[in-house]
Amino acid sequence: MVTVRAPATSANLGSGFDVFGVALSRPADVITVERADRTTIEVTGVGAQYIPEDPDSNTVGAVVDALDAPARIHIDKGVRPASGLGSSAASAAGAAVALNELYDRGLSRHELVPVAAEGEAVVSGVAHSDNVAPSILGGFTVTAADGTTAVDADVPLVVCLPDVAVSTRDARRVVPETASMDDLVATVGNAATLAVGMCRSDPDLVGSGMCDPVVTPERARLITGYDDVREAAFDAGATGVTVSGAGPAIIAACHDDRRQAIAASMLDAFAAAGIEARAYQTKIGRGATILEE
């Protein structure tokens, strides 16, 4: 038996659409695997009732097939589905790490990223790595055509998750197909600023680099109360605010002493819009961790 804790993640971070991602110190999924002749999946935890246990429909089933590693699999969900926090990626990443260990496949963490990405294709239709990469590798990740780069970073974050759902497929439908040259230049500059900020663990640079004039405005329209929540976070001291992944979670970068005030302000803003929400005072954390064998 192998048990793995796989962290929630935030992809895009505004300016890094389909490229940037970070592992979050909380919340997380816990995946336990045992050798078996055929694969079975049991799901418990938050939102478990919405997650299929049929291996052909669950992200983990694709990982099992890719590694040729049938198992009895239990997924204890700490990351809510349709949250913008990489819920499906956490399960796929945790299963990839656990099954690689259980069957002694000998793959490196970087080699497991495309394996876990196959699981993402089950949910979104495309094998994206921007969530599975940080969930496996930890830290801040940059995913390009030739692979993924990961760096450790120490940046405090607040994630506010409203009690509404935005599907990844719906969020991808609103992404513009073209961008102006001015918007392209601005986005590249912001992404470069954010990356430097991550390398320096500088919340001010990270926050200023989150600004994105192309994708985020379109996705923000899917989140009731977004503008007010964003303004409340800035008023409380956030250095940057954007949609986490496909949403509806909203992520704010900040200095450590402002996390509590920012979390409270974001919750109050959602409440004023008539929406219940939960806030996580978190930070950039480790990748998938083996808990027991």
From TrEMBL:
Q: What is its main location?
A: cytoplasm
* Catalyzed reactions per annotation: L-homoserine + ATP = O-phospho-L-homoserine + ADP + H(+)
Give one Pfam hit by family name: GHMP_kinases_C
This molecule's function is given as:
Catalyzes the ATP-dependent phosphorylation of L-homoserine to L-homoserine phosphate.
Q: Which family does it belong to?
A: Belongs to the GHMP kinase family. Homoserine kinase subfamily.
Q: What does the record give as EC number?
A: 2.7.1.39
Which NCBIfam families does the UniProt record give? Answer: PRK01212.1-4, thrB
User: Enzyme class, one word?
Assistant: transferase
In this protein, which residues make up the domain named GHMP kinase C-terminal?
Answer: 196-269
Q: What is this protein called?
A: Homoserine kinase
Q: What is the lineage of its organism?
A: Archaea, Methanobacteriati, Methanobacteriota, Stenosarchaea group, Halobacteria
Which GO MF terms does the UniProt record name? ATP binding; homoserine kinase activity
Q: Give binding positions for ATP.
A: 80-90
